[in-house]
Structures are given as C-alpha cells and as structure tokens.
Specification:
By secondary structure, this protein is mainly α. 59% of the residues lie in helices and 0% in strands. It is built from five helices and no strands.
Length: 100
C-alpha cells in the first residue's frame, strides 16, 4: 500500500519547514499579524504570482524563516496551484486539513 504525501510535499516543500511554520503560527501575536496582512485578499490576488511572491517574502520575514530562491518559488507555485478562494469555506477547510 502506497502512502500519499500531502500535496505540499509534491512541490518540494520539506516537512521540517512546515512543522516549524506550524509551531510559529501557534503564537497568537504572529498569527494575528499574518491574518491582518491577508485581510481583504481575493481569489484573483492568490493567482497573481507577483502578489503571492511578495506575501511569501513578508511571511518568511515575520516567521524568521530565511528562504532560498528555490524554496520561495516552490511556495509560490504551491499557493497558485491550489486555486484558493478565501471566500469559499470548502477551500479554507481543505487548506486547514492539509496542514493539521
């Protein structure tokens, strides 16, 4: 039986990175800061490579997670591929379960 990896791993995103970010996001101040920066975004914003790259860089800085160019590109590709609609509850549930 084959165990499927979470979809983020298929983009080359390392499990150690995800675990560090999940741990850091448990800090209420950090979580609120990032939520505030994402307030008002649209599904079109999340398909704009320039905007997504800008957010990835901002969040990496907030989380004190230095990223290589390759890691940055992997994260941008992952976000764009998800076709996230922040106003669609099912999309948000899918993301939440992916990173539990």
């Amino acid at each position: 039986m084959t165990v499927l990896s979470p979809s983020w791993q298929s983009y080359g995103i390392k499990p150690e990175f995800v675990e560090r970010v999940k741990f850091k996001m448990k800090n209420p101040a950090t979580k609120e800061k990032i939520k505030g920066l994402l307030e008002g975004i649209t599904k079109y914003d999340l398909q704009d490579r320039v905007k997504v790259r800008k957010w990835v860089k901002m969040f990496a800085k907030i989380l004190n997670e230095p990223l290589t160019q390759m890691q940055e590109e992997q994260l941008v590709n992952f976000v764009i591929a998800q076709k996230i609609d922040p106003n669609n509850t099912l999309h948000l549930i899918k993301l939440w379960t992916m990173f539990r």
